[in-house]
Amino acid sequence: MRLERFLWAKAGEVAALRRQEREGRLPAPFAGPRGDFLAALRRPAGGAPLAVIAEYKRASPSRGVICQALTAAEVARQYAQAGASALSVLSEERFFQGRLAYLGEAHAALMDAGCPVPLLRKDFLFDPLQITATAATPAAALLLIVGLTPDVALLRRLREQAESLGMQAVVEVFDADELALARASGARIIQVNARDLATLRVDCAACLDIARRFPPQDGEIWIAASGMEHAAQLRAAAEAGYRAALVGTALMKDGQPGKALRTLLTPAPSVAGSTACA
Predict the structure, then answer these.
(1) Which CATH number is correct for 3-22+34-265, 3.20.20.70, 3.30.460.80, 3.40.30.10, 3.40.50.2300?
(2) What is the pLDDT of residue 43?
(3) What is the pLDDT of residues 10-62, one digit of tens each?
(4) What angle do CA 120, 14, 109 make, to 5 degrees?
(5) Which end of the chain has fewer CB within 10 Å, C or N?
């Protein structure tokens, strides 16, 4: 799958936002607490080697339907109680069966539970109006993909717009060339995706290799994404220089995301029943 399909899938959303802008109906920024996404990545749960961003993921292009039985609210509560440092919520509808509203549902559940874990909006964002729309949700951060916005000036503009609205930007790359573009745009939170979008194959070794060949610079926080399923993989990522890992399918696929996260973070049986917020 190539990124052009996602541009097509988001065309209707962007067109609707432009109509709202012309009519003066763009949503106002969220007025409540968002949380500090960057700070959360610096606080791994318990003895975990790095922070885990646990993802609410109902479906994907590579796996089809993953888990539709659990709501965003229920999964958010489970993740927070199991030790997630942050949550990723997929809002793309066509391929991932997401909804923008899931961010609000997850946030409300976390606040009710007294576990204010920061949220990342994971989607295909390339237009300033999408950043404005994200700011109307409780998201503490959003995803920008270099492959969608390879123009460094635009990438910087979108990142700075997000920051001006109280959010942080996670800039995703797939190879060394995109890493150079991300750095040129001033990105400080860099996510390296191990999945090849052309073939949908995952190569965790390539993800680790990028970090070893082009180590994180001072002030950068790196996130490893795709293919993280076992505690040993988290340790390998941490040793390569990553500070966090984004995990979705491995946690959602069996319909017990909280239990799966506990196993990933702290395999010891003595903590399997813990329900304390991280």
Answers:
(1) 3.20.20.70
(2) 87
(3) 999 999 999 999 999 999 999 999 999 999 999 888 788 999 999 999 998 88
(4) 30
(5) N
pLDDT tens sequence across 176-207: 999 999 999 999 999 999 887 667 778 888 89
Residue ranges covered by each domain of the chain:
3-22+34-265
Closest listed residue to residue 179, CA positions, set 147, 141, 143 = 147
Structure tokens that stand for 133 in this block = 């729309």
For 263, what's the count of Cα atoms within 13 Å in the CB-facing half-sphere? 13
